[in-house]
Design brief:
Helix content is about 70%, strand content about 5%. By secondary structure, it is mainly α. The protein has two domains: about 150 residues, no CATH class; about 70 residues, no CATH class. It has a two-stranded antiparallel ribbon. Helix 7 packs antiparallel against helix 8. It is flat, with a radius of gyration of 23 Å. The termini are far apart.
């Protein structure tokens, strides 16, 4: 499988690619906070936030179609959580339905809140995709460490990024071995085989983690992320960071006035 699907566009050259990782992390964090705290039904503010993140994506020379397709991956999980809001929110009834012995009603306010939640989640995902697509993952971890993110969290993200590909390859090999030996059987037998595969994968992952930890400790690993490039704030970081910050503040002021 491809091992660089998260930061596969991080080697491109643009002004935003060359920014300090800490600047981009703070920008993405402020953008997400601004989107989340925006009240529902403020569609003008959400439209301005969408224009802001799209301007960053275009300025970074990222393939727009690929970014949009990647951002839609999270939408089923958001809908799975938020799909019940229209049925629980009180207000003017938009429709009533009979489901077996229950009668449920959908309200207009609930539908608007559902749309607001989906829009905010999508905008937040676009900002995170922009962050990971313009920053090498090692530099991103280094920036998080310099911003005093808990070292345990940084280490977990580092190991996840490095070994999720190994685990995925392990699952594909186990699946290929199962398919080559599959001679049919009942549904219960198939589920039992999948359960055995999950148990085997857990044991192999645990043993691999023990071996990796012992190897790293024997080589003097102290938990610090190291990169060849040093992190330094430049004039471009200040200019871009202040510009995006002022744009977010202006959007918030327009949101309050209108």
């Amino acid at each position: 499988m491809k091992h660089s699907f998260l930061d596969q566009y991080s080697d491109r050259d643009s002004l935003l690619h060359r920014l300090d990782p800490r600047t981009k992390i703070i920008m993405a964090l402020l953008f997400i906070v601004a989107v989340v705290v925006t009240p529902s039904f403020r569609w003008l503010a959400l439209a301005l936030y969408f224009g802001t993140v799209m301007a960053l994506i275009i300025a970074s020379r990222l393939p727009l179609l690929a970014v949009l397709k990647r951002s839609l991956v999270i939408m089923p999980f958001v809908l799975l959580v938020a799909i019940f809001i229209p049925f629980l929110k009180e207000g003017e009834v938009a429709g009533s339905y009979n489901i077996w012995f229950w009668q449920v009603s959908v309200t207009y306010d609930g539908l608007q809140i559902l749309w607001s939640v989906v829009s905010k989640a999508w905008l937040s995902m676009l900002s995170l995709i922009w962050l990971t697509s313009t920053t090498k993952f090692a530099s991103l971890l280094k920036g998080m460490e310099r911003l005093h993110v808990p070292r345990v969290m940084v280490m977990i993200l580092s190991f996840m990024y490095r070994y999720i590909f190994v685990l995925t390859d392990e699952v594909m090999r186990m699946k290929q071995a199962r398919d080559s030996r599959n001679i049919g059987g009942s549904r219960f037998w198939q589920l039992k085989t999948v359960g055995n595969m999950i148990g085997t994968l857990f044991i192999r992952s645990y043993e691999r983690a023990e071996r990796v930890y012992a190897a790293m400790m024997s080589r003097g690993f102290d938990g610090e992320s190291r990169t060849l490039d040093s992190l330094t704030f430049r004039r471009a970081d200040a200019c871009v960071g202040v510009s995006v910050g002022l744009l977010l503040v202006l959007t918030g002021v327009l949101n309050l006035l209108y």
